[in-house]
Structures are given as structure tokens and as C-alpha cells.
Design brief:
The protein is of the alpha/beta class. The protein is 34% helix and 13% strand. The two termini are 17 Å apart.
Length: 424
């Protein structure tokens, strides 16, 4: 490399590495086509858009989608719901989580994880994430109290959490484990499908996920009792629409049912997913091997391994100031990037931006469920998870998907080398 002046950075007016747009951050929606259109049209032709009609209930689109998930994940039960948030709420109810309980969640996850716990009357307890961007098992164990009922493990940015250690901790303390697989559908941990390892697994079909119906969700489990409790809660009509024997007592539920149109849109996408993820994994492995040679950035040891779907590139630099400058410079070079935690962005993946949690505020102006336990020491502030904030502050992320090609990878590497030379 010859002598390069700082003016050659695109952010300072120099020529950018890349002039064409960066790849879409979406995956499943990029693949929607004739097959999905035909499935949706079939529903309209049948004029059956509500799942629970009295006849043909097992041949509905939602039932078929549940069967696909059971086969794909190897679980005994699946329940289609109308969002990933609904799946989390149903899972918490199924697990017996409610008023007076605490639920340990990561400090880095979508806000719905915290909201779901509060909605069922449980107090969310924040735990640190490590460089994998997933729960730090050591901090999970440190946060357990006599009120702890469950742990929600979130597989963030396509990275699986350390499930062996977390399941071991949960077993020692008799805790329920709920996997939030919204951002890692199709991922594995030591050969096991994510969502099938904990007591319950929850998935999202929102547009930014690996496969999508715009909105939608799925809950899976190997327990009949947990499935029945979730099924009862997701349908405010009780078992009127199930047309099968119920083995548990009735209790009030919501309406989280998935429509036949959403289910039809999702059908068949699981079959496409392995090929899509093979591309993202392969690309991420190539990137990681190349970037290991760049001394000015840091990568988590799990990046590029079996635990990584490859749907994003996250790299760590020296400090938050450099991360912000690097993200801006990479974007100017034609590689869309952002600082994972920027105090000005109000990103709802970072705990300090969950306004209701920081204020312990319920929808009615009170402080439910925190007001239930006067002796509780659970509190929230920017200092609640300092390692997480420090880590995310110096993290830079680039969206990847299955459409990334070798030329795109070369552009990433060239832009990173350029930015590292000048700014890092």
C-alpha cells in the first residue's frame, strides 16, 4: 500500500470504495415470489382466511406451518401466533411466570423481551452480554434470586448463546428457559436447532427476520402441558376452536391467533432457508478469516463458527468515539454501517432506551409489576449493565444477507482497511 493521505477517505471528500448501493438488510422478503403468491391466492380462492373453521381444521395453512416447524426443529409441539412478541408472552404464561416472579433477560435485545415479562406481571432483571452479543452465563447466575422463575435467552444478530452453560445454570436453580430465536431462525448450537434446546422456543416472522410473513410468530416445545397452556392463552375463546380434549383447567386468554393468509405466506420458506443460510455462513467465515489479519479491530471468538448464522458483521474497535467515526466513514465508502450503541439513536435494542423500564412505568401511570414486591432490589439505570454499554458503544455493525457476493466481500475488506488505516 502506498502513502495515503487522510483526504482520500470518502468522508473527507475522497473517492469511495463503492458507489453502488449496499445490499438490503432483508432476507426472506427478498425471496418472495411466484410460490408465495400462489399460496396466498389459494387461500383467497378457498375463502378460508380464519384458521378455526369447524371442518378441515388440521388442513389449515396455520396447521401446515406448525407441522413444518415441528419437522424442521424436531420438536413435538408448535403453535402459530401473530407475532414474536405474542410467542414470548404465551411462552411466559405457559412456563407459569406471573406476578411476583423475576425473569432474567439480556441487556441487549429488542424491547419486546422486556415488555413481555412486564406484561405478564413479572419483573425483568437485566444481565450483561459478552462479546458474542448474547447472555453472559456468569452474570445470569449472579442475578438469580429466590423470585427468579425464568431466563429468556436471546440469540442476537444470528449468534447462538452458550446454551450448555445456561441450561446447566437453569437446572441447578430450577428455572425455566425460553429461547428467543427471532434473530437466529435456522441457527444451531452444537448441532441442535435453536428453539429446541430450552423448555420453550419463540420465533418471529416480522419482515427483518430470516423468513417472514410481515408479522407472525411461532412457539415450540416438547411438553404437552406447556403447549396446551400456550394454546389456551393465545386464543381468548378457550378451546372452543381447538375441537380436541383439553387436559388443563381453563384460564383467561388473549387473541394471538395467526391468520391463514400470514401462514400461507410463510409456508415453504423454511425449506428455502438452509440454502440462504449456507451462503451467509460461508460469506461470514470468509470475512472473519480475512479480518483476523486486521490488527486494529477485534472479533468475538464465536464469529464465523457454527454458532454464527452470518447475517451481520460486528466488529469492535478501541472506544466509542472511534466506533462512531468508523461507522460514518464506512458508510461514506459505500458500506452501510452503524455504531451499535449511540446515545443519540434511541435504538430499542439497548436497555437504556426502554423508557418504561427505566421509569418502572405501567400503562396506567403506576408501577406494576415492580410495586408488587416492596423488598425487591431490582433497579434500572445506565449503570445497570456497564460492560454491555461499553461493548456496544465500541461495536460497529454491517448488515449481511444471502445476496452478498465475493465482490461485496472485497469491498468490505478494502473499506475496512482504508478506514482502519486512517481512523483506528
Amino acid at each position: 500500500m502506498g502513502v495515503i493521505t487522510v483526504d482520500e477517505l470518502a468522508v473527507h471528500g475522497g473517492p469511495p470504495v463503492r458507489t453502488k448501493p449496499w445490499v438490503s438488510k432483508y432476507m426472506g422478503s427478498e425471496e418472495l415470489g411466484a410460490e408465495e403468491k400462489a399460496r396466498v391466492m389459494r387461500v383467497l380462492e378457498k375463502k378460508r382466511i380464519f384458521r378455526y373453521l369447524p371442518t378441515g381444521i388440521e388442513s389449515s395453512e396455520a396447521s401446515a406451518l406448525e407441522e413444518e416447524y415441528k419437522a424442521f426443529l424436531g420438536t413435538d409441539y408448535a403453535l402459530a401466533v401473530n407475532s414474536g412478541t405474542s410467542a414470548l408472552i404465551c411462552a411466559l404464561i405457559a412456563a407459569g411466570v406471573g406476578p411476583g416472579h423475576e425473569v432474567i433477560i439480556p441487556a441487549y435485545t429488542w424491547v419486546a423481551t422486556a415488555a413481555a415479562a412486564a406484561i405478564v406481571g413479572a419483573v425483568p432483571v437485566l444481565a450483561e452480554v459478552d462479546s458474542s452479543l448474547t447472555l453472559d452465563p456468569r452474570d445470569v447466575e449472579a442475578k438469580i434470586t429466590p423470585r427468579t422463575k425464568a431466563v429468556i435467552v436471546v440469540h442476537m444478530r444470528g449468534i447462538s448463546a452458550d446454551m450448555n452453560e445456561i441450561m446447566s445454570i437453569a437446572s441447578r436453580h430450577n428455572l425455566m428457559v425460553i429461547e428467543d430465536v427471532a434473530q437466529a431462525n435456522g441457527g444451531t448450537y452444537q448441532g441442535k436447532m435453536l428453539g429446541s434446546i430450552g423448555h420453550l422456543g419463540c420465533f418471529s416472522l416480522q419482515q427483518s427476520k430470516v423468513i417472514t410473513a410481515g408479522e407472525g410468530g411461532m412457539l415450540v416445545t416438547n411438553s404437552q402441558e406447556l403447549w396446551e397452556r400456550a394454546a389456551l392463552y393465545h386464543d381468548g375463546a378457550g378451546y372452543q376452536f381447538r375441537f380436541m380434549e383439553r387436559t388443563i383447567p381453563a384460564f383467561p386468554g388473549q387473541n394471538y391467533r395467526l391468520t391463514e393468509l400470514q401462514a400461507a405466506l410463510s409456508l415453504g420458506q423454511l425449506g428455502k432457508m438452509p440454502a440462504l443460510l449456507e451462503k451467509t455462513r460461508r460469506n461470514k467465515q470468509k470475512l472473519v478469516e480475512r479480518l483476523k489479519k486486521q490488527p486494529k479491530i477485534e472479533l468475538s471468538p464465536v464469529f464465523g463458527t457454527e454458532r454464527d448464522l452470518g447475517v451481520s458483521l460486528v466488529l469492535y474497535v478501541e472506544n466509542a468515539e472511534k466506533a462512531k467515526a468508523a461507522a460514518q466513514a464506512l458508510t461514506a465508502e459505500g458500506i452501510q454501517a452503524f455504531q451499535v450503541y449511540d446515545a443519540e439513536s434511541k435504538d430499542q435494542h439497548v436497555y437504556v432506551n426502554w423508557e418504561f423500564l427505566m421509569a418502572k412505568r405501567d400503562p396506567w401511570g403506576g408501577s406494576y409489576p415492580w410495586s408488587l414486591a416492596a423488598e425487591s432490589t431490582v433497579d434500572y439505570s445506565p449503570e445497570s449493565c456497564p460492560f454491555t454499554l461499553e461493548l456496544l458503544g465500541r461495536a460497529v455493525q454491517i448488515h449481511l444477507n444471502h445476496l452478498v457476493n465475493d465482490e461485496d466481500l472485497k469491498d468490505i475488506e478494502e473499506a475496512l482497511d482504508k478506514v482502519a488505516f486512517h481512523l483506528l
